[in-house]
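Workshop exercise sheet. Pairs work together: one partner reads the sequence aloud, the other fills in the structure field after running the prediction. Swap roles for the next sheet.
Pair: D.N. / O.F.
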Amino acid sequence: MQFFKMLTALAAGLILAGPAAAQGIDETINGLFDQYTSWYVALIFADLPGTNFSWIALWLVVAALIFTWYFGAIQLKGFTHSIKLVKGDYSDPNDAGEVSHFQALATALSGTVGLGNIAGVAVAVSIGGPGATFWMIIAGLFGMATKFTECTLGVKYRNEYADGTVSGGPMYYITKGFRERGLKGGPAVAILFCIFTILGALGGGNMFQANQAHAQLSGVLGEYPGWITGVILAIVTFAVIAGGLKSIARVTEKVVPFMAIFYVIVSVLILILNADQILWAFGQIFQGAFTGLGVVGGFTGALIQGFRRAAFSNEAGIGSAAIAHSAVRTKEPVTEGYVALLEPFIDTVVICTMTALVIVITGVLNQDPETGLYIWNAEAGQIRTDGNVSGVELTSAAYAQVFPWFPMLLAIAVVLFAFSTMLSWSYYGLKAWTYLFGEGKTKELVFKTIFCLFIIVGSAASLGPVIDFSDAMLFSMAVVNVIALYFLMPIVRQELDQYVARLRSGEIKKFN
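Structure field:
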């Protein structure tokens, strides 16, 4: 109900602001958005009684540890086989599905590799200090087992249609899996997950992306109203998502690898040029992980920010990736579980760590030269930074310390990353929408229109309310999804054991 009230209020606010100045439209949208979402954000990120530790962070940490133990550290044992699957060594072109293992991975990565790595890391480090990076890495490594679990289930319980298309994700494995195990409440839990997925698509998969794309563009081009960026992005996004998943996959399989490689190359160059400081930077990360280095909240603050941003970045436990991976061409559900576990490693362990190292090494985080502690800016609620910037602007400033031309190229990368992420999340949200309201072009058009309108909202709103709402929606998905994974993980174990046995016996063969 609050969601629809916000939609109505936003529409009315835009109409009334028609004759107002363009910047006034931004302020109207931001005020209305914050008014209708702040209460839920506070609920999701409430601390455990008697502590300053967020209950939702603990929820994801415990789940990742349990799945790692239950599947025998599958992220280590299955890493090599995952690479072979992505290469297509075991891909049968006659299997049901819409996209290849690589395309499914690229589509899912397009929803994770991007602004979570660029802007999200900057948010984590500026609030939790360099130590937040350590906990991001830990969360990414253990999160690989969570991804394996949910994506195996996504393929096993997907719907396959006569025209070759498929639909899958937590809403399907919750309904079918619960029924198979004789558990009640599956349909109700699936509906709840779909509601959160739609809101998550509008938040983390949409508004946050548009918000940070505008922030970087305005930083390079000069200040201008955010809704202008939003309108342009909305038009281009709508033009692509109208073509369905195959259209999205064709775009993401080209955009994501290119931009990710570009970003990694620049990061590696900066690290090579500052090779003498890498050990010092890692020292800051490890020391800050357990002391906070003067950051408010100390160890706990670093840990919470690390896990919070890792979950936003790689989405392990959120359930979104299971929707994309469900469309893969395979008859072996567990193969896509193997492929999916690569995501947190690529996204968090590799790319997020590079970003954090560059931010720490370039000195854009202000330190007290006498104590070595980071200087806290109480008014901004973060470490004092050069130019008092945050989010993507902080990352841009860090890279510009070495390559002054980088902000312009980063602006292009940010827009493309934001664009690819919005494409993937439009598909996630659409699948949740059609699960609730049924298939059909008219019904799909309604969601796609709403999705594109929220791109404008995200571009105009300020970062604080947008990122809080985005996190809250994604973590809400995780609450429902992880509960389902606990009930269904014995089925995944059975699938894994059978697959490994047939692989070892030679029954499963390579396709050249």
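Discussion prompt: The CA atoms of residues 119 and 391 lie 5 Å apart. What would you look at next?
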